[in-house]
Amino acid sequence: QVQLVESGGDSVQAGGSLRLSCVASGYTASSLYLAWFRQAPGKAREGVAAIYTDGVTSYLDLVEGRFTVSKDNAKNTLYLQMNFLQPEDTAMYYCAAAERRPIFSLLVSQYNNWGQGTQVTVSS
Q1: For the segment 20-60, what is each residue's pLDDT rounded down to a tens digit?
Q2: R_g of the chain, CA atoms, integer Å
């Protein structure tokens, strides 16, 4: 079973940056399809960025150009670099993993392993 532990969430002002990390255990990260999701209060969980085993990435339109997803297979760690943060980026951010290649990379139902989340709060 895959265990995922996120870190790096914080409170920042608009325009600031954060880097989230997610350490995977119980499975080799290089064999996992990994993604970041977020959920704001009262809203559905949405996919933010994904990275496949071959390094192919995909992004939510709202974050493309501001966020960068990457991974370090040697450290079994997934990252999300977030720049030019805006108040609407405020949410709990979750790391997700799938052993099988998702058909839709940013769809919640495609992932069967989830972390506990890390809170990102952006003030104006």
Answers
A1: 999 999 888 788 999 999 999 999 999 999 999 999 999 99
A2: 13
